[in-house]
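re: ur question from earlier - yeah i can do the single chain one, its not a big deal. heres the input i used so u can compare w yours
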Amino acid sequence: MLSSAKLKLSKTAVDGVYIVEPKVFGDERGWFTESFNARDFASAIEQDYEFVQDNHSFSRQWILRGLHYQMQKTQGKLVRVLAGAVFDVAVDIRKQSPTYGKWVGIELSAENHRQMWIPPGLAHGFLVLTPTAEFLYKTTDYYDPSSEVCLAWDDPTVAIKWPLPDGIPPNMNAKDLAGLSWDQAPKF
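and the output i got, formated as tokens:
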């Protein structure tokens, strides 16, 4: 674990993926946090990334988005939740990585203020756990629909344990339902 006065960084089971916990200052009036500081973030992960795009989504409970990645213009993502809660997942698809084929999932919420750093070369998705959620992510490259790939959310080789209640299927769009199997999906 790395930490500074403003942020705590914890390693996960997937190489290069970190849980980022900014310092939250609160009292009876409410709270304040510095949700992103480029200098502190670069120092903590020991690499400097330029973020070029912010994406903000709103979703209802049991919506599952992903698992997305781009073969060109690969994106690193710093993700967080502004309202509600999600189960956020990153899958390592970097063939040379020591954690190739592994996944990590954590709960991100407005209450816990956690963020997750997902470096380029990983597939990413999330499941909404609360009645609604607002999700914000910074990306290190622009969206490139021509190189976007979707890995199947339920691929048995990856075997993600999504926290869905028994009998409740995820709500997904057609693109995500047509995700590629682990064997079919291109890797880095």
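The mean pLDDT is 94. not sure if urs matches, ping me
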